[in-house]
Amino acid sequence: MDGSLPVGRYFIMTHHKAEPTGGGSIKTIELLESLSNTFGPSGFEDEVRGLLKKLVEPLVDEVQVDALGNLIGVRQGKTKTRLMLDAHMDEIGFMISYIEEKGFLRFTTLGGWDARIIPSHAMLVRTEAGKKIKGIVGTPPPHILSEEDRQKPYKLEHLFVDIGATSAKEVEKLGIRTGSPAVISYPFEKLNEMFVCGKALDDRAGCAVILKVLEAFKSKMPDVTIYANFAICEEVGLRGARTAAYQIEPDLALALEGTVGADVPEVPSARQPSGLGKGPTISVADSSLIVNPKLVQKMSEIAKAEKIPYQYKIPPFGGTDAGAIHQSRGGALAGVLSVPCRYIHSPFSILRLDDFDETVKLATAFVKRGNEILKSCKN
Ligand SMILES: [Zn+2]
Question: Which of 57, 137, 200, 244 is the least buried, fewest Cβ under 10 Å from its Cβ?
Answer without folding.
Answer: 57
